[in-house]
Amino acid sequence: MAEIKMEVIKEADLTNNCPECFNQELKLSFFQKHSYGKFIHKTTNEVTSELECKTCHTKIYPVAWTPDIERVFEYYQKMAIPQKSSIKLTSLFYIILLISIAVIAAGVYFILEGVLV
Description:
alpha+beta; 4-stranded antiparallel beta sheet; 31% helix
C-alpha cells in the first residue's frame, strides 16, 4: 500500500488577527501531495493549505477568514509554487524488471535449444 505524505511547499507567519483569540500569531502552510510506494514515487499537482493560530492552536477555516486574511492568503498562494507532477520508479522496480527479463530470456534460450523438450 502506498504511503501518502503532504510535504510542505511554503510556510509563512502572518501578522493578521486570529478570529478566535484576536492574537497576531498566525501560521499559513501550503502542502503538496506525494505518494510513496514500493515500486513508484508519485508527485501530484494537488496543493492544500492550512491556517493555524500559534496561540490558541486552532485551525482557521476559510469561512472565518477576514478580508485581510483572504488578501494575504492570495498573495502567498501565488508564491507557493509546487513541484511538477511526476512519477519516479524505484530501484526495486528496476531489479524485478531485470530479473524477469533474464528469466524470460533464459526460458526462450532453453526452448530454442531443445533442452527442456
